[in-house]
Design a protein that fits this description.
The chain is an alpha/beta fold and about 425 residues long. The chain has helices at about 5-15, 20-35, 75, 175-180, 195-205, 240-255, 285-295, 300-310, 355-370, 385-390, 420-430, and strands at about 40, 55-60, 65-70, 80-85, 90-95, 100, 105-110, 110-115, 125-135, 145-150, 180-185, 210-220, 225, 235, 260-265, 310-315, 320, 340-345, 375, 400-405, 405, 415. The strands form six sheets. A nine-stranded mixed sheet has the order 1-2-3-15-4-16-20-18-19, with helices on both faces. A hairpin with a 2-residue loop joins strand 6 and strand 7. Helix 1 crosses helix 11, helix 7 (about 285-295) packs across helix 8 and helix 9 (about 355-370) crosses helix 11.
Length: about 425
């Protein structure tokens, strides 16, 4: 395996391990951008932008827009945008204590976020990460603290096969009943106490009474791996979609200023429809692009001209052909792992790709000397949607939907290719040239 490709894949695994929640994803992106000379812009401040400079701004600390202002006129050169998302399907802890005392155990009270493969969450060491909101002097602005308990602290155990002989015939997962991780044995020391709040307070070194609420998720405490005889595969949680976040940010950091303004946006809440203030269905990106345009003495007409000269790559992972379920795929368009990024196409506009935008991305791949594939759903199976189409409700951009091929999408442990991660980075770098 090529050392450059392997290093990039290991960098991805390090990024995923350090980013167990969307809050941590954005915090790590910010740290990387600041290290590379980007300047943070607060949404409530007056901006003062300069050409050929590097900036970023965020929303809710779970979505971020980073950009390098162009050397040319925005109304003539537009924006080159790569969009991805910071969230992954999983399990969240419910508010109002978040725990239950059940038959001698302390268990967490949870709900499902998005569409995870729930069976993969059983019998794994899990931990907790996210944001905790604390009492502050200003009721409109609670103090935010971020937590990552960096060790396994709970498990969702299966019922033994001896008590459920039909388990291998297909198990109906009752979410309220069965997705309750065991956190501790209930003893006299824990009776009557809010154990989760005490655990959080201990980790943050605060008094539990300061805690008002939280946005906490469970995550797999196991690290991702490079696997295969030739180190050709990546096995990790959150490949969908932190692989695209990782490569898009890397491409922006490595880019030089061009005539166009280069933009990377990482939205949140794609897995639940994107209709939040930090999602692709909100005006977050449009507002940032307008502010950039207006900073250079442009009017509304100039902004509309800039949009006409812009292009967006909507980057979200794609399905690879599963060797045991080939009947689930189109008979012709069947992407393979490590055969290049995938252009995603849907006649009913689940994806924004059309022949023109597909041609744009294919030419980028050819120029970057990387292979490219196409994915179309089996005609009898409805597929999902992603960022491109949702963003079109805010910005009428030319756009293509692409992603790297992977297996086990939405499993707690997903499966992709080392070569593909390198290939898609090269295509993004070519786009920003």
């Amino acid at each position: 395996m090529d050392e450059k490709k392997l290093k990039l894949a290991n960098d991805l695994l390090d990024f995923i391990q350090a980013s167990p929640s969307p809050f941590h994803v954005v915090r790590n992106i910010k740290a990387a951008l600041l290290k590379q000379g980007f300047k943070e812009l607060l949404p409530g401040d007056k901006w003062d932008l300069r050409k050929s400079n590097k900036y970023f701004t965020s929303k809710n600390e779970t979505a971020i827009v980073a950009f390098v202002t162009g050397k040319g006129k925005i109304e003539e050169n537009g924006f080159k945008i790569i969009a991805s998302h910071t969230d992954s399907p999983g399990i969240k802890i419910k508010p109002n204590i978040g725990i239950r005392n059940t038959e001698g155990y302390v268990t967490l009270n949870t709900e499902v976020y998005g569409g995870p493969i729930l069976s993969t969450w059983f019998d794994r060491p899990l931990s907790i990460a996210g944001r905790v909101s604390l009492i502050s002097s200003d009721p409109l602005y609670p103090e935010a603290r971020y937590i990552n308990i960096r060790k396994p602290i709970c498990v969702i155990p299966n019922l033994a096969i001896h008590l459920n002989r039909e388990v291998n015939e297909g198990l109906k997962i009752e979410r309220q009943k069965m997705l309750s991780p065991i956190l501790a044995i209930l003893n006299k020391q824990l009776e009557g106490k809010n154990y989760l709040y005490e655990l959080i307070a201990s980790e943050l070194k605060i008094d539990p009474s300061k805690i008002l609420d939280f946005d906490l998720i469970l995550y797999d405490a196991g690290e991702g791996s490079i696997v295969g005889p030739d180190n050709e595969f990546i096995s990790s949680g959150k490949l969908d979609n932190l692989a695209m976040v990782h490569t898009s940010i890397q491409a922006l950091v490595d880019s030089e200023p061009t005539e166009a303004t280069q933009v990377v946006v990482c939205f949140d809440n794609e897995e639940v429809g994107s209709l939040s203030k930090q999602g692709a269905g909100a005006p977050f990106l449009r507002n940032v692009l307008q502010r950039i345009s207006y900073q250079f003495k442009n009017d509304v007409e100039s902004f509309y001209r800039a949009i006409n000269h812009s292009f967006m790559i909507s980057a979200d992972m794609a399905h690879a052909l599963h060797p045991a379920f080939t009947e689930k795929y189109d008979t012709i368009n069947r992407p393979m792992i490590n055969a290049g990024p995938v252009i995603k196409i849907n006649a009913n506009q689940k994806y924004t790709t059309d022949s023109e935008s597909a041609a744009v991305y294919e030419m980028l791949c050819r120029n970057a000397k990387v292979p490219v594939q196409r994915y179309v759903n089996h005609s009898d199976i409805a597929g999902g949607s992603t960022l491109g189409g949702i963003s079109s409700g805010q910005l009428d951009l030319r756009s293509v939907d692409i992603g790297n091929p992977m297996l086990a999408m939405h499993s707690i442990r997903e499966f992709g290719g080392v070569d593909d991660h390198y290939f898609v980075l090269k295509s993004f770098e070519e786009f920003f040239k």
